[in-house]
Structure formats: structure tokens, C-alpha cells
Specification:
The structure holds 2 protein chains of 2 kinds.
Chain A (H helix, E strand, L loop, with lengths): L3 E4 L2 E4 L5 E7 L12 E6 L6 E5 L3 E2 L7 E6 L2 E6 L8 E7 L6 E2 L3 E5 L1
Parallel strand pairs in A: 2-11
Antiparallel strand pairs in A: 1-3, 3-8, 4-5, 4-9, 5-6, 7-8, 9-10, 9-11
Chain B lengths: L1 E5 L3 E2 L5 E8 L8 E6 L5 E7 L6 E3 L7 E6 L4 E6 L8 E7 L4 E2 L3 E5 L2
Parallel strand pairs in B: 2-11
Antiparallel strand pairs in B: 1-3, 3-8, 4-5, 4-9, 5-6, 7-8, 9-10, 9-11
Classes of the chains: A mainly beta, B mainly beta.
């Protein structure tokens, strides 16, 4: 299975400040079809996950533009330009290139 | 788009359970569908996936041979038949569309004696 490693696992951030989460995969996520299936999800306590970013850098409908994704191959990053209170929760990267799809351990974002 | 899981409950080790997922607001036959689970306080684990018409199904090793995913596009439903349950299967089970663009609210399965 492809191991997805996130850092940091805990991310205290001051409101209005930027935040960044790194995700590294154990092998390249470039699919034979030319796409890279690296997604980012956000999960608030007691809620279902919500996808924020798909295929590295594409924002899902309704996702604020303060969220952005980047990267290629095995190294990926989720950035939030200015953290808002509603951004608290756990962020997961997920690869959908190799079966079984796998998630990172999760990064818990909290407000300082 | 709405996905609504049901069927989760307390079951004894070695028992069986069938989860259902009712889909609405979109054409089910247009999408691969998936089951993902989350043990209490833990991360997300992809369990099974099925292509649009049910001809391709793949499972995580941890459930292979015990879980069976099915779908009925005419009734807009998915199912996950779970046999030989162990305490390690205790989790909230989510059905999800495509590669996670929409999720249900989840159904809690608790395996305990």
C-alpha cells in the first residue's frame, strides 16, 4: 500500500495567519492516464469529511479561494492563506492513483 | 446530491451486518461508488469500490473475503454486506461518490460482545 505521510500532525495557527500542510507519498502518484490523484479533505469534529482539493490543485465547488494545493510526484502541499475559525478540524491528504486508496494520518488544525 | 447510510448497529464478533446507502440528486450509474470507514478517534480507511455498473469491485485486504459490495442503479442504492465481523471492524462507515466528492453522514457499526 502507498504510505501517505503528513506533517505536521498538529498545527496551531493564529486567526488570519497562513497555514501549510505537507504530504509525501511512498511512490509517485502520477497515474498512467497522466493525472495525479492527490486529494485533500477537511473533517470537522462529528462531521463527515469534505473534499477541498482534487487532482493536486483543483478546488471543489464552494471551497474558498484561501485554500490552494500544489505539488507533483511524491511531494504535495495544502496552503491556507488566512486561517479562519471555521477551518479548525483535521486535514487529510489522500491518494487515488494506486489501489487501495490511502489517506495520510491527518493534521489537526487548531486556533491559538 | 445526497447519500444516506443506514443499517449500523451493535453486533457480536463473528456476526453479520448489511449496510445500505441511498443515493439521490444524481444519476448513480454515472459514478464509481465507494465505502470508507473510520474507527473511533482514528483516521480514514478506504474499504471497497465498485464501478458504474458493478462489473468491477475491489476491496482492501483487511476486508477481502468477508465484505461484499453491491449496487442497484435502478433503486439508487448501494449495499455493503459484512460477514465475519471482528472488533477491528468497529467504525463509522461512509459511502462516498467518485473519489470523495460527496459523502454520507455515516453509519456506526460496533462489534462487541
Amino acid at each position: 500500500d502507498v504510505v501517505m505521510t503528513q506533517s505536521p500532525l498538529s498545527l496551531p495557527v493564529t486567526l488570519g495567519q497562513p497555514a501549510s500542510i505537507s504530504c509525501r507519498s511512498g511512490q509517485s502518484l502520477l497515474h498512467t492516464d497522466g493525472s495525479t490523484y492527490l486529494n485533500w479533505f477537511h473533517q470537522r469534529p462529528g462531521q463527515s469529511p469534505r473534499r477541498l482539493i482534487y487532482k493536486v490543485s483543483n478546488r471543489d465547488s464552494g471551497v474558498p479561494d484561501r485554500f490552494s494545493g500544489s505539488g507533483s510526484g511524491t511531494d504535495f502541499t495544502l496552503k491556507i492563506t488566512k486561517v479562519e475559525a471555521e477551518d479548525v478540524g483535521v486535514y487529510y491528504c489522500m491518494q487515488g492513483t494506486h489501489w487501495p486508496y490511502t489517506f495520510g494520518q491527518g493534521t489537526k488544525l487548531e486556533i491559538k | 446530491v445526497q447519500l444516506v447510510e443506514s443499517g449500523g448497529r451493535l453486533v457480536q464478533p463473528g456476526g453479520s451486518l448489511r449496510l445500505s446507502c441511498a443515493a439521490s440528486g444524481f444519476t448513480l450509474s454515472n459514478f464509481w461508488m465507494h465505502w470508507v470507514r473510520q474507527a473511533p478517534g482514528k483516521g480514514l480507511v478506504w474499504v471497497a469500490r465498485m464501478n458504474n455498473y458493478g462489473s468491477i469491485t475491489t476491496y482492501a485486504d483487511s476486508v477481502k473475503g468477508r465484505f461484499t459490495m453491491s449496487r442497484d442503479n435502478t433503486k439508487n442504492t448501494l449495499s455493503l454486506q459484512m460477514n465475519g465481523l471482528t472488533v477491528e471492524d468497529t467504525a463509522v462507515y461512509y459511502c462516498t461518490r467518485g473519489m470523495g466528492d460527496n459523502w454520507g453522514q455515516g453509519s456506526l457499526v460496533t462489534v462487541s460482545s
